[in-house]
Each structure stands twice: as C-alpha cells, then as structure tokens.
Amino acid sequence: MTQLQLSGAALAAAVGVYGVLAALWLVRDRSDRAAAASLGHLDIDPYHAVATAGEAHDADGHAAAVLMLEGRLTIDAEGRLSVADGGDTDTGHPVTSALLDAVRRHGPVTLRELRLNPELRSARGDFLREQDARVPRWSGRRNDGLGTAACATALALSFFYPVQRVFLGKETPAGAGDLLFGLFLVVITGLMLAVPLVWIALRFWPDRRDPFRAHCAGLPHPEPAALDEERRGRLRTSLIHTEPWEREDTTWVDSGGAF
To answer: How many CB atoms lie within 10 A of CB 205?
Structure first.
C-alpha cells in the first residue's frame, strides 16, 4: 500500500470515527433530554443542589445562612463567622454540622479561609458523593468520554503522518542513531500537527448538556434570601474576604544590583 493510500485510509478512518462519535452524542443528548423530564419529581437536597449548580464549597455559604437564621452563628462586618452559643454541633445535617464544628474550632473565621479546611472538605465531599449516588444517571454529568475520544482521535491522526513519513517511507532509519533521530522527528512533527488539530477538536466538539445542573440552578434557595441585607452583604464579604497583606500592592525598586 502506497503512502497516499495509507493517508487516505487514515483520513477515512478518522472521518468514520467522528461520524460514530457524533451519532453517539446525538443519541445520548436525546436520552438526557428525555430523562430530564422526570427531574421535577426528584427530592434534591438543597445543599446538593447548590453545590451542583455552582462549586462544591458554595454549600458552605448556604449552610452559614441557615445557621445564622437559627441564631447559631454570627458574622461581623469583615465576614468573620463566630459561634453564638456553646451547644452541640449536631444540627441534623452533615454540612451544617461540619461547618459549625469548623467555626467553633477555628473561629472567628471567614468562609474563604474555611474553603481549604480538611475536615470540612472531607465531610462535604462525603455528603455530596452520597447524594450523587442517589441520582446515578447524573453523577457523572461532567465526564464526557465522547469528547475525550474526539481529542484522542485528533492526536492519533497528528502522529500517524510523521510515523508514516519517517518509518514507512522508502528510506527507513537504519541504525540506532538514525532511529533516535527518526523518533525525534516524529515527536516534533507530531506535536506541531497535534496543537492545531486537538485545538480544533476542543473548540468545535459540543459539550455535553447538563440538564441536572440547569435544574438545580433553577431551584429556589430561600435561606440566604431570608437574611437581612446587612447579613447578606457580610456573607458575600466572607466568601471573597482578603487579608490586608493580600491587598497590599507590591512595589519593586531597582537597587542597582545591591541587596
């Protein structure tokens, strides 16, 4: 088989793979849309909904609002949370209990500072995994194996032509030195082709639609809204709070080489 025939066969195979992937994407999308019709009948935990609609740590802000409404947390003008009483940290929900316990141990503290707290992250992660297990169809909603396959196909096509040119040409590498140089050419040329081809695959391959996330984003979350305007503002401050040293602009001065 000549190089031209091999190139044509590789291109035809790539077109066939993308055709199959596109058909699978359409089938999956139609199935997702049909399943989304039943989302209104699901009992979705509000903390799970908040974390799904945004980021996992967004559940902490929802929990803080609930605890402030219950009078168990207070918040100052800088967004620092403190425990209002010395009672039990068991609130009846794992996320609020973990947040209350974290504030009790580290407070006064902002939600931004608690974002990396290992105990709170662990408790929140366990809860979200448990909730995801209740909706198995949607638990892998952000994993798009078809998109990965589309990029892998572009990558394989990028390296096929250099391999064909170097190792399947009329003058194949002979000896260790020629072999290493041939491999070097394959890697360099393959990468040069892979950058635009993989970018095109990433740019134009459609993302998987996420009806579950859209549904969660549309659910009402009355707890933060029930706070007065002052505490809502302080809660927003707590989420994005920066320390004074973080706000200071660093000024570089040319010392002329001296320390």
So the answer is: 20
